[in-house]
Specification:
about 130 residues; mainly beta; 4-stranded antiparallel sheet; 1 helix; 11 strands
Amino acid sequence: VQLQASGGGSAQTGGSLRLSCAASGLRLDQYSIGWFRQVSGKEREGVSCMSGSDDGTHYLESMKGRFTISKDNGKNTVDLQMNSLKPEDTGVYYCTADQQREPIERYAESYYWRSANYDYWGRGTQVTVSS
């Protein structure tokens, strides 16, 4: 099983980037998917997730209205569209998969922000937002 995040790069404040998570060895539509961000010296922080059951989503409060998670079952990818970027969005972004396929409301939102609940992780992609 491999997950690979791509699409990172540099952007200016207010700009956009689209990250993509590609998988091999598993079908992403059969997993709950999370996007996490890690800043040097800090723990990984969940920023968005999507249920593998009902496509329900959660977003970190500071990302609401700016980030959108989506999936393309035909391509076996899950994307994270990031708009209105801010310097504090800077970090390494990881996609991750959780084998549970419950509707999004089955668990409290805090469940999805706990990195230990996810089973597969890919290499991250760097996002740098300058002011």
